[in-house]
Amino acid sequence: MSAQPVLVLVPGVTGASADGAPFARADEAAAQLTVIDLGVTRGDGIFETVGVFDGAPQNLGPHLRRLARSAEMLELPAPDLGILEEAFALAVAEHEDVPELSVRVVMTRGDEGTGVPTAWIHARESADWSRERAGIRVSALSRGLPSTVVADSPWLLAGAKTLSYAGNMSAVREAKRRGDDDVLFVSTDGYALEGPTSTLLVRLGETFVTTPLSAGVLQGTCVASVFEMLAAAGRTTGEKLLTPAEVLASDGAWLLSSTRLVAPITHLDGQELPVDAELTARLLAHLRGA
Amino acid sequence: MSAQPVLVLVPGVTGASADGAPFARADEAAAQLTVIDLGVTRGDGIFETVGVFDGAPQNLGPHLRRLARSAEMLELPAPDLGILEEAFALAVAEHEDVPELSVRVVMTRGDEGTGVPTAWIHARESADWSRERAGIRVSALSRGLPSTVVADSPWLLAGAKTLSYAGNMSAVREAKRRGDDDVLFVSTDGYALEGPTSTLLVRLGETFVTTPLSAGVLQGTCVASVFEMLAAAGRTTGEKLLTPAEVLASDGAWLLSSTRLVAPITHLDGQELPVDAELTARLLAHLRGA
């Protein structure tokens, strides 16, 4: 984490005719946001974190399309994905060459009263995930919400990737207090959902499943990639609601995310799961774009 | 809303020996926060909004103590309430004299990796709440969480006043889409909880009740003041879980908050409630500190 992070501000994120350039590099160590930005006063904004491996962004298109869906769910102005793509490329190009970059794309509702979103791209060297890629211990923790939340209560924004992550961060602290590394959220009606910053993948024999979007989870970009790879290898893939007990009884489970990529669950609430190191390595290589 | 807002930054919020002054006025129109402040990237921070009426802050002590409780729940460093009180006084003193000020006290987890919170006080003239103080139409909307969430899932931070308010803001947009002004959140087990930025007060004959803290609502500073006033007038006060139907069948209901103060609910999901304008005026005068 020694290389200098790169910040690109994107005043032209909504394509509106900004006075100057639609995006430009800025000083990442300097203050850039006001204290009335609704991103900070209300956690009212959206983001994506994109992995860049040996200079190549993985799933940038799906990430930007998910950002656009989040914007719709929050009734934010539609982001100009072309502008964001160019700004993203600038941030990556300006960053020192490192094997793994973690690039955050953020759009907030902007300064209160203006109706003008604030947006930026922030690229920095990824943390060293080698330990987690070998295996993680996971606590199953309630998310408090039923698996029917999307249909019942769309205003709760389940499935949108908002900046309001205080509860997610708190859940990870609870897992660490329990001696674990990460969290698998569980619905109040007893189904495994996703991690606070990751998607669940479960193997049931030669079938691989993830959580249905209807349960209020985020649409995973990694799991889509992994499903393509597995389908090409003749495996069945799909969505299925599973209980934590069914995850425990499965043939293996992973949490997928865009910079850590793939983390096999070795233990769920202290109980051991089978880990397939060879398959995990293949998933990792695929997600890394090798 | 023409008077100039006043910003006071509080680098000494944790009482740590900051290099310079523990707080100082800063340019509120200028950028003051970095893009790696966890307040914006994760909604990871806490806040209070305090009303100041004719120069007198209302319930500043209870607000700051609630901030300290929120800090504990989020495992943030404990804020130095004495420093915050002094910084608060400076912000109010520096603001042009207006009848009603809305003063926000914010503390975030700070720039990622530093462990040093960011804190500020932001004072601005309140919106004109005269219409809402005469009456509001309210939509009952599910919060998705059961009324047992505090006991079941403390990591979800129900009852802490965090910056992660995207869902609260979205619920208000849903209410407006329905032709209403505000929201009364309902638990998944069917109890009226609170508004997105307010506390519920209900009259049942000569008894006045609010939602039990155990249901995961924020401890209201206004309702404590109102209960003191009502108790002094010989009324019974207390906590009680009510269904929306019981609220509708009550002798009147209000949403209380620190700058709007008191808003009688005229309609809940389109159904009319009794409104006692005289009592509402007395509650308003009491909360305004008259």
TrEMBL record, chains A, B:
Similarity section: Belongs to the class-IV pyridoxal-phosphate-dependent aminotransferase family.
Domain of life: Bacteria
Listed name of the protein: Aminotransferase class IV
Alphabetized SUPFAM superfamilies for the sequence: D-aminoacid aminotransferase-like PLP-dependent enzymes
Keywords: Aminotransferase, Transferase
Pfam families, sorted: Aminotran_4
PANTHER family found in the cross-reference section: AMINO-ACID AMINOTRANSFERASE, AMINODEOXYCHORISMATE LYASE
GO molecular function: transaminase activity
InterPro entries: Aminotrans_IV (IPR001544), Aminotransferase-like (IPR036038), BCAT-like_C (IPR043132), BCAT-like_N (IPR043131), Class-IV_PLP-Dep_Aminotrnsfr (IPR050571)
